[in-house]
Design goal:
single chain, about 350 residues, alpha+beta, HIT family, subunit A, 9-stranded antiparallel beta sheet, 3-stranded mixed beta sheet, 7 helices, 16 strands, globular, binds zinc ion
């Protein structure tokens, strides 16, 4: 493959979402007199008596056991639930369907003050094992068409509670990005006989944007990144969901997530906020064996104190503008390896 040029003032095709991304790297350093952000770099205590996720604490409904290791429970205020009314009906334009399903919370660790970067190898693997276990249980439910596992990290993406945790939404809804990726991958396979996810992985592997790699996964700032510090974790073989991962692949995925999160924190020596989403095949009974399983990280910051605001083009128009060069952002994350900065300071 020829050497890749740097991003110019150009549009790039996002092959998984089948949409164009506008790159305007010449605008990244434009004068900014808008709002800036200060990271809240306070170390939370190991146990917070007011935290609904800490062991032994009372929640809205029920109480957490004195758990050790990774722990899950059903969200006390779920967005999909067994009690949602039966409303399916309407006409072609104004249609309704019910919100049956469930929502779960997965605590990574009993220690309120830790984040994913603090997990041991075994603890990180145990989190992925628990995701796979919950995925299997939820996928088997007839009302569940898709299992979305995601983590909102940091106040900038709306997380009020620092306790290390993620959420699982599972109901009769295939989330939009996943539905588009499923269709794109199926069409690509029908046309070429190749797996779309593996083609993207091979191109990224041959390019300059890989920031970390192990036996089963690599992490990169993809060529078509929508956010400045966006990172994808891509598997080295075609897998469609957590259910397809072997025990050693689950362990390797845990280590790769920890590696990405550590590099994020090291970048500016502050806790990096992000939305992490595991994209996996729908569980609606269709054949999704071509689905490109991967993990996406979307950090909202483009500088330590400056948000990437979604505004006119993104919210109003529905397409993303990226003011940065993915090659440059990958180089910054490549240079942010090594132990977590807080461990270095100790
Ligand atoms: Zn807590």
């Amino acid at each position: 493959m020829p050497a890749e040029p740097r991003v110019a003032w150009e549009q790039r095709w996002h092959p998984l979402r089948e949409e164009w991304i506008l790159f305007t790297p010449h605008r990244g350093g434009r004068p900014w007199i808008g709002e800036t952000h200060k990271p809240a770099d306070v170390d939370p205590p190991s146990h917070d008596p007011t935290c609904a996720l800490c062991p032994g604490n009372r929640r809205l409904r029920g109480e957490n056991p004195p758990y050790s290791g990774a722990y899950w429970f059903t969200n006390d205020l779920p967005c999909f639930g067994p009690d949602a009314p039966s409303v399916s009906g309407g006409d072609e334009l104004y249609r309704t369907r019910d919100a049956r399903g469930t929502a779960e919370v997965v605590c990574y660790h009993p220690d309120h003050g830790k984040t994913f970067v603090d997990l041991t190898d075994a603890e990180a693997a145990a989190v992925v094992d628990l995701w796979a276990e919950r995925h299997a249980a939820l996928a088997a439910r007839p009302e569940v068409d898709h299992v979305l596992v995601f983590e909102n990290k940091g106040a900038l993406v709306g997380t009020s509670n620092p306790h290390p945790h993620c959420q699982i939404y599972a109901g009769g809804l295939i989330y939009g990005h996943v539905e588009r990726e499923a269709a794109a991958a199926r069409r690509h396979f029908d046309r070429t006989g190749e797996y779309l996810g593996q083609e993207v992985r091979a191109r990224e592997e041959a390019g300059p944007r890989v920031i970390a790699a192990n036996d089963h996964f690599l992490a990169c700032v993809p060529w078509f990144a929508r956010y400045a510090y966006e990172v994808f974790i891509l598997p080295r073989r075609q897998v469609a969901s957590l259910a397809d991962l072997s025990p050693s692949e689950r362990g390797a995925l845990g280590l790769m997530i920890r590696e990405v999160a550590t590099r994020y924190d090291n970048l500016w020596r502050m806790p990096m906020p992000y939305v992490m989403a595991i994209h996996q095949a729908p569980t609606d009974g269709e054949d999704h064996s071509t689905f490109p399983f991967h993990v996406e990280f979307h950090p909202p910051l483009r500088k330590p104190d400056t948000m990437k605001y979604l505004a006119g083009p993104e919210i109003g128009g529905g397409s993303m503008t990226n003011e940065s060069d993915p090659n440059e952002k990958a180089a910054e994350l490549q240079a942010a390896g090594g132990p977590h900065y807080k461990r270095m300071a100790r």
